[in-house]
Amino acid sequence: MANVLVVAEVRGGELRKVALEAVTAARVLADQSGGGSVHAVLAGAPGIAAKAGALALHGADSVLVLEHAGFAMYNPEALATTIAQRLSGGAYGYALFSATSHGRDLSPRVAAKLGAGLVPDVTGFRVEGGAVVGEHPQNNGKVVATLSLSGAPALIQVRPAAFQPAENAKPLVTESMASAVDPDASRVKTVELKQGGGGKIDLNDAPVIVAGGRGLKAAENFKLCEDLADAFGNAAVGATRAVTDEGWRPHTDQIGQTGRNVSPNLYIGVGISGAIQHLAGMRTSKTIVAINKDKDAPIFKIADYGIVGDAFEIMPALTAAVKAARAQG
Amino acid sequence: MKIAVCIKRVPVMEVKFAITADGSRVDETGLKYDVNDFDLWAIEAGLQLKEKNGNVGEVVVITLGTDAAQEQIRKALAMGADRGVLLQADRAPADGLAVARALAAELKDGGYDLILCGRIAIDSMNQMTGPMIAELLDVPCVTNVFRLEVAGATGRAERVLEGGSEVVEFPLPALLTIDDGLNKERLPSLKGIMAAKKKPLDVRPAQFGDAHVVVAKMSLPAERAAGRILGDSAAAVPELIRLLQTEAKVL
Ligand SMILES: Cc1cc2nc3c(=O)[nH]c(=O)nc-3n(C[C@H](O)[C@H](O)[C@H](O)COP(=O)(O)OP(=O)(O)OC[C@H]3O[C@@H](n4cnc5c(N)ncnc54)[C@H](O)[C@@H]3O)c2cc1C
Predict the structure, then answer these.
(1) Can you tell me the distance from the alpha carbon of B79 to that of B185, in angstroms, rounded to the nearest whole number?
(2) Are B35 and B75 in contact (CB under 8 A)?
(3) Where would you tag: which of A244, B37, B56, B119 has the fewest CB atoms within 10 A of its CB?
(4) Which of ligand 1's atoms lies nearest the C-alpha of A257?
């Protein structure tokens, strides 16, 4: 039996979907290790406690609320110190983080403070004779390392979308938690949050991604991707590096080896050749659709469904058809 | 300005990877190597900061690996770095903290104003070395930097989030991890390549300490089955919609 501490990711005062995924994964971990408790850390500005309910609904036995104006924005120094202090008392066998920009910034700091082991970015894990064994993609996702992690606390990052949020309602129990250091004294200060990149939904939260490539030819033609994303209602717009280099889309929308890693249920690539560096960031998508006028484009090799044709003709038809299908369904 | 850049020798990715017969690691036969992309952008950032500073100071590249990694240090020296350090090891441990400890031990008394790392190494994909080093050295740390201004003893950076970004302020000395989008790396010039041969390159053994993370097994992911081409015009759209509804069940 081992308790699990899970850090629930908050951005702009809202819980992110990855937080619910992480709590779901923490519940699995606690149950696999013989029935420990799941404690979810919820840090934010005063009032953030109002978001605790969703964490209990997804399996947190207790929500540790860390409220302070100094946590209104991401405050890695104070958060890492506070979490490391909580973990150092011996009460937890495991700590779980999301493998996001924030989680991959925070968890190594905590690991280094504690001298603890950290397995990065796992797509799945199990507990085996006291050790955590996790699958971690390497070499652009062309190789999978199975890493074994011993010692307590064992720190684990779960890859976004690797766990679907599952309800597992627990009574809402909150406990207020104090920061181990003055949050306003941190040397690193986040002074501004720019939400949203080019898409309306965050790339890692969206079940559907419409990604555009250089084949769209100009920034304004990304309207075709926006329209299709709007037709789905739950889609984000992504881009290739060729596109972000051109400045047609913000850098933060880039998918690939040097951009974001995404795993949506549905990825639609439009006017994208499918260079290896792009594939590295989206090959784990569940269903892949490619629209490209070149029948030899490498993206067709990994696409489930392809249409060889002109995006400017196909996109409006596809958008209309998705709208019609959703109106019926 | 004294700047350290941590770099890594990584395989070039445009190959089909294979795993050794005992399943313990990637088969190195036929692999080619280069400096990790993100580290090239970190080297470039270091060189530009030094240049903006009237070329006063030093850019030191540090790597951990086998003797073969001297090739990557020479490349950085040819780009313009001043000297290199190789922390010698047969194999980088799977435990990121062990790697960070070895690098931190080297950096500790170096008096660096800035330590730059790439955001992630594309082979291990650990993305933890930078923030761990910062923690071990107790210096401020900003990860995933794609915009950067340094003025005197303070810096302002913009860091990538999923579908967004954050603006962060920090005092120097600090550690930054560099993301795509900050710059493009310069190519080594012929003159640079000649000069690099004469620049100092120190070699000393890496000191790792304990490790909690080990590789249990390496494998290749399941191949995706080849998909279907549904047509060559908008006439294929109804069939696509049908498949998304009935087969993929995503609509
Ligand atoms: C170190 C490094 C890191 C990189 N990291 C990334 C990364 O993270 N992400 C990334 O995406 N790339 C990355 N790249 C770049 C990558 O190699 C490719 O250059 C890039 O992905 C190509 O983008 P693209 O597919 O949009 O453009 P192109 O390769 O130019 O392809 C455009 C495609 O559009 C098609 N097309 C043209 N007109 C139409 C039309 N009317 N209708 C339909 N199709 C049309 C063409 O047939 C073509 O296949 C990286 C490269 C390097 C060297």
Answers:
(1) 9
(2) yes
(3) B56
(4) 8
